[in-house]
């Protein structure tokens, strides 16, 4: 397969090429904006549902004194909240993957701009290569980021909240089965820890599936 020629080698290069590139760039930018809007919307919706669940549980607990009515209500609403949380978590991972592809596309377009006008490179802040360092430059304006950057991401935050909900649900189930306070605590902590590991592995596996066969076309 013949490799693509650079834009400077294309015969009859003129204004239509620039117009095509800018149109595609704005299209990707608009799609990325919608992706981020969905991330914020889904995260906000889940946190709203979670807050409503906590308030409802507290009201039922005050009315029933943490009796059988509270356990029944908790066993009804916590699985629903967890289901919404898991759906949010996996969708956020998908959205982050989609956003990465949009960044790759815009980096390639910037590379095309610099083929047309190499003298503009000092004025570009975002990346113009589609390899990992170039992608990270567009994301955070540096080649690599620290642990705090990854931990503050929406999927990680939602995943941790989901793990806590799993732990609470496990403790409630243990209490409904007649478990003692110490046993409920141990079961809840272990369930939350196991859920954290499992969600982390599933998220990592999804990202690996997408990035495993990726080869940059314009590495730095």
What features would you describe in this structure?
The chain is mainly α. It is built from 6 helices and no strands. The longest helix is centred in the N-terminal third of the chain and has 50 residues. It is elongated and about 75 Å long. It starts with 14 loop residues before the first helix and ends in a 9-residue tail after the last helix. The mean pLDDT is 88. This is Sensor protein. It comes from Kribbella koreensis. Keywords: Membrane, Transmembrane, Transmembrane helix.
In short:
By secondary structure, the chain is mainly alpha-helical. The protein has 6 helices and no strands.
Largest sheet: none
Shape: elongated
Estimate the helix proportion, in percent: over 70%
User: Mean of the pLDDT scores?
Assistant: 88
Number of strands: 0
Using only C-alpha atoms, the radius of gyration works out to: 24 Å
Tally of helical runs: 6
Distance between the termini: 22 Å
Low-confidence stretches: none
Topology as a string of helices (H) and strands (E):
HHHHHH
Proportion of beta-strand residues: under 5%
Structural class: mainly alpha
Task: Give the SSE layout.
Layout: H1 15-64, H2 68-116, H3 132-140, H4 147-151, H5 154-176, H6 181-211
Helix pairs in contact: 1-2, 2-3, 2-5, 2-6, 5-6
Task: Give structural attributes.
transmembrane; elongated; transmembrane helix; 220 residues; Sensor protein; single chain; mainly alpha; membrane
């Amino acid at each position: 397969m013949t490799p693509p020629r650079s834009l400077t080698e294309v015969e009859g290069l003129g204004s239509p090429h620039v117009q095509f590139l800018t149109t595609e760039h704005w299209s990707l930018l608009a799609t990325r904006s919608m992706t981020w809007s969905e991330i914020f919307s889904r995260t906000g919706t889940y946190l709203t549902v979670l807050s409503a669940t906590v308030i409802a549980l507290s009201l039922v607990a005050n009315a029933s004194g943490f009796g059988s009515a509270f356990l029944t209500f908790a066993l009804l609403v916590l699985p629903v909240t967890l289901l919404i949380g898991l759906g949010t978590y996996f969708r956020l991972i998908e959205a982050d993957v989609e956003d990465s592809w949009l960044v790759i596309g815009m980096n390639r377009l910037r590379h095309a701009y610099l083929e047309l006008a190499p003298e503009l490179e000092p004025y570009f802040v975002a990346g113009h290569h589609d390899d990992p360092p170039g992608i990270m430059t567009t994301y955070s304006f540096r080649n690599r980021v620290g642990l705090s950057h990854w931990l503050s991401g929406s999927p990680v935050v939602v995943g941790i909240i989901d793990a806590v909900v799993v732990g609470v649900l496990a403790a409630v189930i243990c209490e409904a089965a007649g478990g003692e306070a110490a046993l409920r605590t141990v079961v809840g902590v272990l369930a939350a820890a196991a859920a954290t590991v499992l969600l982390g592995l599933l998220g990592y596996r999804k990202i690996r599936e997408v990035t495993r066969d990726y080869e940059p076309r314009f590495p730095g």
